[in-house]
Amino acid sequence: AKLLGERPAGTLPVLDFEAAREAHAAVRRGVVSGALASAHDIAEGGIAVALAECCVAGEVGATVSLPERLNEFAEAPGRAFIVSGSAEALDGFAVIGRVGGDSLELEGTLEVPVSDLREAFEHGLTGFV
Fold it and tell me: pLDDT tens across 108-123, in order?
């Protein structure tokens, strides 16, 4: 909405501040210890944009199955996702996908080659419209 010059619609989900604080602390500990390779917020463009940014940065695809209640472009405070880590390190986190391949696939929604994501990132969307 912001990019189109429109007012945002709807309300933000209720945020459990204590749970968000604990989750952020757990992610920070995992990244600092090296158990988790990285983490990314979904504050600008939602999880679809964040995943695309990660695929471009890592030059690798991912296959993700989003929970029903999560809109792929929704932005909300206090939300983050782990990019990678061992199964042991991810214990206690909701795993919604796997890294690998040459495309970003949001099951049932979209599939885009990482090369197209890189092109859009570097040159904008003019070649895709």
Answer: 889 999 999 999 988 8
pTM of the model: 0.79
| Pairing between β-strand 110-113 and β-strand 103-106 as defined by DSSP bridges | antiparallel
**Directed axis angle between helix 46-58 and helix 114-123, to 10°?**
100
Q: What are the pLDDT digits (tens) for 72-127?
A: 888 777 777 777 788 888 888 888 999 999 999 999 889 999 999 999 988 887 76
User: What is the token pair recorded at 60?
Assistant: 């690798």
Burial of 89 (0-12, 13-18, 19+ CB in 10 A): middle
CA dist list (Å): 100 to 48, 64, 80: 16, 11, 20
